[in-house]
Known about the structure:
Blueprint: E1 12-17, H1 29-46, E2 50-55, H2 57-60, E3 76-78, E4 96-102, H3 104-117, E5 121-130, H4 134-147, E6 150-152, H5 154-162, H6 168-177
Parallel strand pairs: 1-2, 1-4, 2-3, 4-5, 5-6
Helix pairs in contact: 1-5, 1-6, 3-4, 5-6
Amino acid sequence: MTDTTMFARDRAALVVIDVQDGFRSYDTFADIARQCGRMVEGATVLGVPVLATEQYPKGLKHTAAEVGLPDDVAPVEKSVFSAVRADGFDLRGRDQVLLCGIETHVCVAQTALDLLGRGIAVQVVTDAVGSRHAHDREVALHRLDRAGATLTTVEAALLELCERAGTPEFKAVQKVIL
Length: 178
């Protein structure tokens, strides 16, 4: 059953999965990196912790500069597909996770399924996830929806965390999403 609770700044974390330079050959890489960057920027404005992972950085290189990880975010290096199973992965008590990154059908999906299995609410940011093949992405999103993850978008997720218009945070997030 899908968790219909709205996400809140004091409960949510943003997890950026493997948006690494080694994936630049993917047709959708530039869009995914840009959208993940918007999520990072908006989360930072709203005080939502940002976590990032890198799959085998020796081969796939490091997180793309466009993602704009804050200086204090050191990506967790991993060789497992699910970020949850990586040494050093820690949500710091958060029970809601926004997921974005690469690849939807592998690392994003396995991370989402592990989080759901641990009772963590998951929103997959559909315009900020990608796979080498569009069909793999679409099947993965269908699977995650059926498994109980909520599908969302960059704009919907960030405005949900804002809760209201007219605040300084809303005005800053508005600049990110426009």
